[in-house]
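Any chance you could type out some protein's one-letter sequence along with its backbone structure tokens so I can compare the two?
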Amino acid sequence: MAVIGLTFSSLASAQQAGSPADEADLRQLSEQLAELKASYAQEVRRLRELDMQVQALQARLAGKVPTATQGAAMAPATAPTAAPSPGTPGAAAAPPPSSAGYASTAAEAEQAQSEPMSRSVADVKQATRTLFDQRLVIENGLTYNRYDRKQLTLNGFLALDAIFLGNIAVENVESDTLNYNLAARWGVSPNLTLNLDVPYIARKTVYQKGGAGGAAASIAQEETTGNGLGDITASANYRLLAEQGSRPETVLNFGVTMPTGQEPYGIPWTVLERDDDDFIRFAVPDEQPTGNGAWQASIGVSAVKTSDPAILFGNIGYTYSFTTSFDDIDNNPDTVNPGDVRLGDSFYFGGGVAFAFNERTSFSMSLSNRLSARAQTRGEGTPWNKVIGSDANSAMFNLGVTYALNPNATMVGLLGIGLTPDAPDFSLGFRVPYSL
């Protein structure tokens, strides 16, 4: 800059002197000035290209693509003081120093800008069913749920408002459920994905009842199991709005659950204890069901917003249960009562945040809640009756980790902690989606 300023001063002095014989010197100074301007523009262009290449390499190593604004913000404010030899070809066509932003002239920069989203971000969006750039995904999942419920039963009355006369029994139900799920996700178009989930369920339930035989210290225990195909779900995800600026990506979800599993109605029960008046005190089912026995339809909306390095997501939806008829809707082993059952509709919502640690790993925290209304039953020729205690509030706090095993496979680990009595005590799951 000092050389350019000195040249400007010399040229101005020569013009003010008005020497009629120094036209040759004036031409020489003008040529030097033009060469310096061309060299300065060339160096600025080279500096921009080097900066774009550095940004591209950093993006490829960290899994993040810098924007043009970020690249412009990192540009040096001053020009190089040392200029190369004049006469560099193409220097006169370079953009002037006052040009805003960087031109995409470096091949590495163009490659970085054309790269897709970070792999960890894509894995989070795949877990939330908001990824639409995959043609076919086959997913294998294994989930373990643990339930433990205790209930105090009093069968009698209070004497003198202080002394209980009758039987005191403690009922305990412990259930372990293992669910293997085979799923297929097919990307029909850039905005539509079809899903099919086929579960296989194995259950073991232990029933314990205190006060067996009328003795408070006596405990009876029985164990039942069940395994088989669960209820198959077919669903679809349609992208309503793509993420743009402050607007999140919005996806419409709708699905149908088919009663392909073993229904809980009509299963034979085994009586383990009766009173003297033939009242059943302790009975258990011969096997455990693997489905709910009714058709269900659900609709919901999901939203995802990326804010590097965080990914915000949430969902809300509603599930409707259709009325279904069964040959026996009573769990009394001595009677057979055909009738209709309508499970309670449910309303669910949830939200959370995920953090992309690097290109291959992300960590998520979320809260999910499902509110279910009471179920209703109706025998032949009788009105609808609500089933007391069939309503539920199941809330879970979830922790998840995704890790990219290779370019096509991802491992997803999930830990759920029950927050309400109706939720599992804890849930542990693993999924491996594989892109074809």
